[in-house]
UniProtKB/TrEMBL annotation:
Classification lineage: Eukaryota, Metazoa, Chordata, Craniata, Vertebrata
Record GO cellular component, one term: extracellular space
Subcellular localization: Secreted, Extracellular space, Extracellular matrix
GO biological process: canonical Wnt signaling pathway; cell fate commitment; neuron differentiation
Gene3D superfamilies per the UniProt record, alphabetical: 3.30.2460.20
Family classification: Belongs to the Wnt family.
Organism: Nothoprocta perdicaria
Protein's job: Ligand for members of the frizzled family of seven transmembrane receptors.
Name this protein carries in UniProt: Protein Wnt
Main location: secreted
Pfam families per the UniProt record, alphabetical: wnt (PF00110)
Keyword tags: Developmental protein, Disulfide bond, Extracellular matrix, Glycoprotein, Lipoprotein, Secreted, Signal, Wnt signaling pathway
Presence of keyword tRNA processing: no
Amino acid sequence: MKLSLQFLLAALLSFILQMGICYGIKWIALSKTPAALALNQTQHCKQLEGLVVSQVQLCRSNLELMQTIIQAAREVIKTCRKTFSDMRWNCSSIDLAPNYLLDLERGTRESAFVYALSAAAISHTIARACTTGDLPGCSCGPIPGETPGPGYRWGGCADNLNYGLIMGSKFSDAPMKMKKSGSQANKLMHLHNSEVGRQVLKASLEMKCKCHGVSGSCSIKTCWKGLQELRDIALDLKNKYLSATKVVHRPMGTRKYLVPKDIDIRPVKETELIYLQSSPDFCMKNEKVGSHGTQDRQCNKTSNGSDSCDLMCCGRGYNPYMDKVVERCHCKYHWCCYVTCKKCERTVERYVCK
């Protein structure tokens, strides 16, 4: 009898966790798509991992877009890990796509960042692909209506942000608009954070110019509107991650809304990342809560930031290691036209968390 009760409780817990799961970022598993898959026939869409039915349908009607989306998935993984390399949570679990741990399956602060970055990345990659001519369905962005100023003229090829936003949101938001894709609270949270990612992307559009003139005088500048690099957009989103607001799903009138947990006298701001579930401290390995721990992570002995040995190692201490590094040195340029270098060896001290 006791065993049956334990089994029922475990099953109930599993069901509750499953109800909170949303499938919105499982498409990042596209990063594992083999290069040998040509993606030139609609039946190839079924071979792609991590897609829900509506995304498979989008794939079939937009085959030419899929290589760009696959590239976006790779950019999300690379950028996320780079952006959080100095934090206890270093986005390492994103490599497990589509079978995430609870740090990304629940409505955590970490999942808020990944949803926002994913939405920004897919639109960013599509907009850039239009500019480079890699997508037959789009071209350069429109010429701005305003005058650029004396000595400036519009030209070049602007990033097609509008097309990137339209197609990117269709694909990345499709799972959250399914009826059976997790709790309503999670869907609202993920849709909100995805839109925050796109807002940061829009704000990154800036004027870029190239000089023209006799002997490099730069008497005329040809300008266009271009997006910042994804790494810069990710840093803006990281700041929003650090100041994210915890919310609750609360009835207001005849409907439920996400409102700040501690200061629910105001609505959620459109510019802030939000989360439903508190995160662990990520100090110790515990897959039940989605924590990889920081044991064996490298730390910075001289830093006072999040990568410091005190914070990264959670007070457990660290071990010093001496590594020998071989580098090119004493390089000389020879006319014409090659460089010769010697090889130098130096000792580097590393610090690794206990």
